[in-house]
Amino acid sequence: MTKDLSKKSLFRLLDGFTSEREIKKYLQRFESDDFRFAVIKVGGAIVTDDLENLTDSISFLHEVGLCPIIVHGCGPKLTSTLNEKNIEFEFIDGIRVTNEDVLDEAIKAFKDTNNLIVNALNKKNVQAIGYADGYFDCELLDKKYGYVGEIKGLNIQEIKNSINNNKIPVIASLGALGSNQIVNINADIAVLELAKIVQPDKVIFLTATGGVLDENNKIISNISIKDDFDNLINKDWLHSGMKLKIEQIKILLENLPSDSSCSITSPIDLPKELFSDSGKGTLVKKGHQIDTFEYVSEDYSNTIKFILENSFNGKVSNQYMNSIHDKKLFISSCKRAIILLDNHKNIPYMDKFAVTPNARGEGLGNSIWKKMIKENSKVFWRSRHGNDINGFYKQISDGFHKTDKWNIFWIGVKNSDEIIECINYADSKEVSISYE
Ligand code: ARG
């Protein structure tokens, strides 16, 4: 639905952050998901502190024809009411123990929060339906937690119907035991159970920080569970709440199709996260299988040619194709990304790094890059002036040198004679791709 109106609003909200090509690509991808587009978890604090940005971003999605499923908590509101009313409560294993008094307040807080979201959306002419009466079918989780439910099922048809009618479902994380007893459910668990059934393309967590923060409080753009999980989870700077979230996301992704991904972003950055390759937030993917070959067998020639021509939008010379067999190859199992390495005087030269346009924004480039770097403490390469990737290269390289035609980068090359050797080699290598 690339209506003119939608296009205008897309550009307004995206504010020059992304290109038309990216917008079209993601619009097409998300539209084709139908009711499986996205489950969005909205923390209770967002509703209290950032409702305007939340509803702006959701109405933007609605305007371009996308209908996410919203699940919300109400934690901070409930905590403050309980404190005001001197009702004691405690957490066991991160779960709020819910006695009758706590439950009464929880039900009210959930209803208020749910109404707040639904009304704010309606005010923006976005139709939304609230589910605040215990949408999830539950059994009691364990007596020690009180009225806390374990989800056993849910009526997916209801959600499908509301999406078919172009109404955004807004679901409170409350459940029902049979027909009359309401129970409390941890909102992250509700998201997990819902996602298992919906199998969405995206699961999105909207938070105030807008992503997973590294030791310098900067947002980590990509996390691959396969490559980064073990390392990340052991970092002492990783906030305990985030640790828990990443562990839950790992379980979540294990239960979703391999293409699905999870984004953590803030309400205001949601459109940018969704409609650009680079995103604005943290993208968590299951990870990619990358295979390594010491030399390129004939079987791979056509695949490599295809990936190169697609990625660089040019024509690869025959001469180059005849020379690839001695190179070392890294290739993703989905055959959409490659790195080719040469050797010059025992220093690896990255001859090609290519990710096809339809695979960008999936963290695939990141995965293949990391694998190559892990295996090569020294490497050098070149890229054209004006290439979008140069910013990334400048950040991660140990040094770079500009010649008339090329930027030449290196990692781990320390000796100045070697650096000069690398620069001369890279600068004088023949061009292998021609552009019409
Ligand atoms: N727009 C794509 C998506 O929503 C890519 C997002 C990339 N985000 C990131 N933080 N690296 O899946």
- Major beta sheet summary: 8 strands, mixed
Write out the strand line-up for the largest beta sheet, numbering strands in chain order.
5-8-2-1-11-13-14-12
Total individual domains: 2
What is the helical fraction, as a range of percent? Answer: 40-55%
Number of helices: 16
- So, the CATH homologous superfamily of the largest domain? Acetylglutamate kinase-like
SS-based class = alpha/beta
What is the CA-CA span between the terminal residues?
33 Å
- What integer is the average pLDDT? 92
Total strand segments: 23
Any low-confidence stretches, pLDDT <50, length ≥5? 1-5
Described by the principal axes of the CA atoms, the overall outline is elongated
CATH top level assignment of the largest domain = Alpha Beta
CATH topological fold name of the largest domain: Carbamate kinase
Hey, roughly how much beta strand do the residues contain?
15-25%
CATH second-level architecture of the largest domain: 3-Layer(aba) Sandwich
Radius of gyration: 25 Å
- List ligands, each type once: arginine
